[in-house]
Amino acid sequence: MTAEQHPVRSTAAGLLGRVMITPVLPRPRLRRLVRLYAGLTLYGLSGALLVHSELGSMPWDVLHQGLARQTGLSIGTWSVLVGALLMLLWIPLRQKPGLGTLSNVVVVGMTVDLFLWLLPGTDSLMARVGLLVLGVLVCAIATGCYIGAGLGPGPRDGLMTGLAARGWSVRLARTVIEVSVVVTGVLLGGTVGVGTVVFAVAIGPLAQLFLPLLRMPDETPETPVPQGS
């Protein structure tokens, strides 16, 4: 590489650094990518398990499900669309996405639709309770994987941390966002129930359990654990 090319690379890296928190993959790159995409795929699986349980979805999926019922578009499609719209809200909040953020928008929506199609439905209450418990557990593992990869928070998490950076407490930001999302989802026809409550109560402690086990050893920057989708 010639000396003249170095300023070009430096300028490009500087521009990327202004808009993304992870313009270049930190090492170990392959392990981070595997951890990231395994986590996002498992996140889609967990959403599908909770929807199939018919006992209540995770808060954001209540909204996606309600929108799907009103429009005929799939839950996964609305997950992608809502994620993309939320990233527009990052601009005034001055939040920076990473590779994990952009991947979250697309991969979770695609995989939740895939698993909704693959997983069989059931009328057995015991089986539905099993789907609920498994869905919450898989979501906690997924959270540890994709947050532990250190490649950027999900679009919904970034909205919460962006509001927190503007003076809101994390608890207040999370509560306002998720209550608004659930209420809107219910009004649109989304399923809320005991599963939604179990998810809200259990996901934080379970994610805190798995995150240290799945975090990359040299993770930078540190990202807070999300409380929900």
Keywords:
single chain, about 230 residues, mainly alpha, 9 helices, YczE/YyaS-like, membrane, Membrane protein YczE, transmembrane helix, transmembrane
Summary of the model, kept short:
InterPro entries: YczE/YyaS-like. By secondary structure, the chain is an all-alpha fold.
> Strand content of the residues, in percent?
under 5%
How far is it from the N-terminal to the C-terminal residue, by CA? 44 Å
What characterizes the major β-sheet?
none
Radius of gyration: 18 Å
| Strand segment count | 0
Helix content: over 70%
* Number of contiguous helices: 9
Shape: globular
SSE series: HHHHHHHHH
Structural class comes to mainly alpha
Given as residue ranges, the uncertain stretches (5+ residues, pLDDT < 50) are 219-223
Instruction: Please tell me the overall pLDDT.
Output: 85
Organism: Nocardiopsis tropica
Keywords: Membrane, Transmembrane, Transmembrane helix
Pfam families: DUF6198 (PF19700)
Protein name: Membrane protein YczE
Structural description of this entry:
The protein is an all-alpha fold and 229 residues long. The protein is 72% helix and 0% strand. The protein has 9 helices and no strands. Helix 3 packs parallel to helix 8 and helix 4 packs antiparallel against helix 5. The longest helix has 25 residues, at 29-53. It is globular, with a radius of gyration of 18 Å. The protein starts with a helix and ends in a 15-residue tail after the last helix.
